[in-house]
Each structure stands twice: as C-alpha cells, then as structure tokens.
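Field: sequence (string)
Field: structure_tokens (string)

Example rows 1 and 2, in order.
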Amino acid sequence: MRQSTLDMDDLRKRRSLVITRKEAAEALGVDPRTITTSINEGTIPHVKLGRRIVIPREKFLALFADAATDNGEA
C-alpha cells in the first residue's frame, strides 16, 4: 500500500481553488468515506459541479486554522 505524502502544509502551498475528497482525506490521514460523511452532515463545505463534488481549499483550511494555532503550527 502506498503511503500518502500529502499533508495540510501541501494544501496551504497549493494555488488551486478546490481539492478532492481523496486529497482532503490524505491530508487529514483519514478514510475518504469520513470526508464524504462530513460533507453529507454539512461540517465540510463543498461545491457540486455536475456529478463531481469538490471542496473549496481555503474554506477547508479555515476549518483547521484554529487547531493549527492552538498546536503552535501557525
């Protein structure tokens, strides 16, 4: 099994406006189904583009900004 190298810092450095559920899951170290559940519950913002669901990168990062500051990462 391939080990993920994508993390929150990688997402912060990107210039793209959106990320995929898979990318969000890799950055958080969780299963993509966890991201899907959170999207369905309304805790992770998303945009539906046709059949595709994407996550606005800045809004996603903002969800964890306070946690990073509390841990001294910011």
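Row 2 begins here:
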Amino acid sequence: MGVNIFSKFKHLLALSSTLVVVSASAQNIEFGVYGGVSNYIGDVSEQKMRFDQFHPSAAVMGRYNVSQRLTFKGMIAYGKVSGADSLASKAKNKMRNTNFHSDIYEFSVHAEYNLISNKLSGRGGRPFIPYIFGGLGIFHFNPKTEFGGNTYELQPLGTEGQGTTQYNNLKKYDLTTICIPMGVGLKKRVSQSFVVGVEAGVRFTFTKYLDDIGGKYANANVVARAYGPTAGSLANRTGEVASDYPSIPIAKEGDLRTTPGIIFGTDMYFLAGFSISYIFQNTGMLCPRL
C-alpha cells in the first residue's frame, strides 16, 4: 500500500509543480503563509472536537486564480492532534485509559469556488469573498503515548496484535495515507499586492488509527511476546484504573477497543487559521506594491 500512496503523492506533487510553472508567467498568482490551530475527531475525543485539545498549526500555500470564481491552491501544512481518555465524559471510555499525541504533516491541493465573483484587478469593491473548497491530500502521522514517564511510538508496538502470528490477518497501519480536505473561508484583497483571509476545514482520512485505536483488544501476552513487555502493557490499560470503576469489567481479548456508539468509520482532523498572501502582478516586479 505504501507504494501506491507515494505514487499518488508524486501525482499531487506534479500537479502542484505545474501550477508553480504556470505562475512564472501569469498574473494573479499568490504565495503566502497561514497560521492557526489544529484538532482531531475520533475515538479518544468521543467523536467530537474537544476545545481543550487545540494545538498551533502553520502552513505555506500558493494560489492560482483561474477565473473570478475558481482558484486552485497548493498547501504544505503542519498541525498536531492529541487526546486522553481521562478527559472522557463516559466511564466506559475513561476505563480504556489511553492517551496519544501526533504531529501531522500534510501536502494537499484544493479547488476553491468563490461564492461571489473575485475581482482580479485592483482592490475591488467586495468587503470579503466567501468560498468553499475541496481537494485531495497526503499526510503523515505517528501516534505516540506517555507511559511510565516515557514517550513511546505506538504503531511499531502493534497494540491490537498487528503483525503477530496469532493475529496474522492484521497488518500494521500505514503512517502516510490520503486525506480529503473540505471547508469554507473568507478572503479579501486589501491592496494591489496582498490578500488576507480566514479558513476552516476538516480532513476526512482513510485511517482509523490517528489515535492508534481501530479494532479489538488483543491478547496482551501475545503482544508482549512479539514486541516486549511495554507493548503488552499498552495493549490493555484498563487494569490500571479498574479500582476507580468497579462496576465496569476489565477488557478482555476480543472486546471492542473503539468508542461505543462510534459514528464515523475513520478518524478526522481539523485545521483553521488566518492567512496572508502576496500577489505576483508580473514577473518584473521585485517589491510589493501597496
């Protein structure tokens, strides 16, 4: 699967490079920066966005304004996601007793559709241009957890039995995979050369494992024999807090590890922020024109 993912990445990179080449001789090309926040929706957030789990995010981007209605955008972004069952509202989820955090590195290409025409010369008369966007991206993640005062990468430990002989139908999940960005934004041309904006979008992913949780509890002894005692301990942490929830049985092999009542089939992450970009009016311009 990794080969296919990197093949898709090369196609996305080729498309982005084409837009950059076009920009060398075209007006109304924008390059800029973006800063904001990131968050996640998945099992450890109980399928909602927790306001205490926002993290800083940043990106560089380029836009090619095809017309007054259509814009193509390429973006290289960074964000972070995290969650902890200790923050859950339901005792059943607290009992799972997991925590994770992961950096997110994304490359994506978006098509923006302006809901009102974006005048491409001069400041224009619009206060703001609202738009919607959708696209395709590739992102890398690597969930980690805190345990015993140390930080561990979770994917190599096969916490649900991935890669063991007893669970040979389970393969370790890919850390680089596809996402589909979708969202809304507002932008305004504030001078002949600069555009400012605000944007928010969700990334629908093709993985259940942003948080390392996607299936059932494995036999902790099997995991420990394959990957060591720490992996065995992380495969089932319900015993650590069992005394706090005497009415809830300790999880056993084959029990669902995912959040009861799960709505979404895969995890998602969210990016939102403010941007400022510079419009290249022509190839001879060396300095911004205010």
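free_text_note (row 2): Residues 2-280 form a domain with the Porin fold (CATH 2.40.160.20).
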